[in-house]
Specification:
- The protein is α+β, with helices and mostly antiparallel strands.
- It has one domain (about 40-315): 4-Layer Sandwich (Metallo-beta-lactamase, Chain A), CATH 3.60.15.
- The chain has helices at about 5-10, 70-80, 120-125, 145, 170-175, 180, 190-200, 250-255, 270-285, and strands spanning about 20-25, 30, 40-45, 50-60, 90-100, 100-105, 135-140, 165, 205-210, 210-215, 220, 230-235, 240-245, 290, 300-305, 310-315.
- It has a seven-stranded mixed β-sheet.
- Bound molecules: zinc ion (ZN).
- Zinc ion binds next to helix 4.
Amino acid sequence: MLNRRNLLMSAVGGIALPLAVNTNAQGQTSKPRAPAPVPGLARFKVGDVAVTAISDGYIDLALKLFPKTPEAEGQAQLARSPQAKPLRGHVNAFLIETDGKRVLIDSGGVKAAIPSLGRFHENLAAAGIAPGTVDAVILTHLHVDHIGGLFDAHGVAAFPNAELILAEPEYAFWTNPGLLARAPADFRPFVQAAQSAVAPYSNRVTRISGEREVIKGLTLTPAYGHTPGHSAVRIASSGQQLLVWGDIIHAPTLQFARPDWTIVFDTDGDAAARTRARYLDMAAADKIAVMGAHLPFPGHGYVSKAGSAYAYEAAFFDYDA
Ligand SMILES: [Zn+2]
């Protein structure tokens, strides 16, 4: 019988070659690896609006970053998760294509500050998007894990033709001339990063007070608390809705069950907790799909309510988008 192996052996004079079979250090044979993973991209439709989730990487949080969480209760909550790293937060940004415009919501993190981040631009390129074709960047807030893609190592704008759109109180807080001087030492890098990110765009920043439709179908809406002007973006098109809620949730394994467990990075923890409860209630009651900057990639899902706790359910991937 002439099978593939016999054929190969006869072709090389009976010398068996380890074709297409790898041998590992222990001398065991194994199959070759699958090709490298696909880029961190996932695409959805909201009516006529196309939404592409773009992965920037992840941050591993620690329980001590949640100061209102009693250690034993926090550990018990984490122990309920079967995941090896239940306090991992993904970092997602979003590309919105609507009405002939390309709009980013957030831009990934500063890799120099958080080495597990920094995949945003390579994934944006993999999506076929040239930075010069981006019309606007809406910023949910100016923390380091949302602004890293805005500027390069020389402080040059990464998006030469984009305007920045963000809430007035967010812009005012971070660009306050006296903030850097009076900031505690461990907070100064946050301030410097925020100021470095917006500086190259200083002549093309649109600041929004209250709630306003900023681009057709995209409404910036206050979600203040995590930062002074932290905002969500409501996408509405052809009767469908999606709420891009920024940092309403940092740690899914903790905060869906306990929305009152705030993170240390909140400017006003009590306000952040009230805002979280309000958004979770709204998403659950109205069955609005949400997209989160720190939900497991692509960060697209639904919220349901069970007693005083909430649960998150990932949305099924839409093959028609
Ligand atoms: Zn964040």
